[in-house]
Write a structure and sequence with these properties.
alpha/beta, Spore Coat Polysaccharide Biosynthesis Protein SpsA, Chain A, 243 residues, single chain, globular
Length: 243
């Protein structure tokens, strides 16, 4: 039986990108190796993003949305998406489309043997400052988490829904998704994917977000790791009641 996949697309003031998002993701749905749909999470945009999202969802049965009352950040947008989905798998891509939806199929090819598969951006098309700050931040994070990931900030991931529902998200923890799967004794893998320059809109993350913010979040992760509760149900009376 074909697996189902919900692709979460967080949106914050991306009205100029959304027509392209609709086109590229519609094209991907036609070639996806899973039965896929798209879920926009509008993170309190102050531009016309919500109007555009409404139009897209009215035209496309495979597109749906959630809309926040106010801007709450990327981690909150992902958490809302994770809470909402009922598919076998959860995907994530940024609305700037600096990664290619078609590369989801590369991740899907590996997901049977793993619980999270993330892209690692090849030949990154970002500024020198952005690339260097990301490299330093990734090095700091690896030293804290020992997750072995080279590019945890890559906005192209697929996670098994059973695992994603157990991630205790808090602000900034989107950078630690592979590490949080490891806390559940899950298996993770990274796969090289394409990367492109931003065509429209403005980046929402700058030096503080990419470097100093993640450093502070590493300490939050260490606290979470010490306090994390992990268990598996061996048996349940509910199983006896199934027809």
């Amino acid at each position: 039986m074909q697996q189902t996949l919900t692709i979460i697309v967080p949106v914050y003031n991306e009205e100029d990108n959304l027509a392209r998002v609709e086109k590229e993701l519609s094209n991907y749905l036609d070639i996806s190796s899973a039965r896929a749909s798209v879920l926009f999470v509008n993170d309190g945009s102050s531009d016309k993003s919500q109007e555009v999202i409404l139009d897209i969802c009215q035209r496309n049965q495979s597109f749906s949305y959630l809309s926040f009352k106010e801007n709450r950040g990327l981690s909150a947008a992902l958490k809302a998406g994770f809470d909402h989905v009922q598919s076998d798998l959860v995907g994530y891509i940024d609305s700037d489309l600096q990664t290619a939806p078609s590369d989801f199929n590369l991740l899907l090819a590996e997901i049977k043997e793993f619980d999270l598969v993330t892209g690692v951006r090849s030949n990154r098309q970002d500024s020198f400052v952005k690339n260097m700050s990301s490299t330093v931040a990734n090095g700091i994070r690896r030293a804290f988490t020992h997750d072995g990931m080279d590019d945890t900030g890559c906005p192209l991931k697929i996670i098994k829904t059973d695992y994603v529902k157990r991630i205790p998200m808090f602000k900034g923890l989107h950078r630690f998704l592979p590490a949080m799967i490891l806390l559940q004794k899950g298996k993770i893998k990274q796969v090289p994917v394409q990367h492109f320059p931003r065509i429209a809109g403005e980046a929402k993350y700058h030096l503080w977000n990419r470097l100093f913010g993640p450093l502070a979040d590493c300490f939050a992760y260490l606290w979470m790791k010490r306090k994390y509760i992990n268990y598996q149900i061996a048996d349940s009376s509910a199983d006896l009641k199934k027809p």
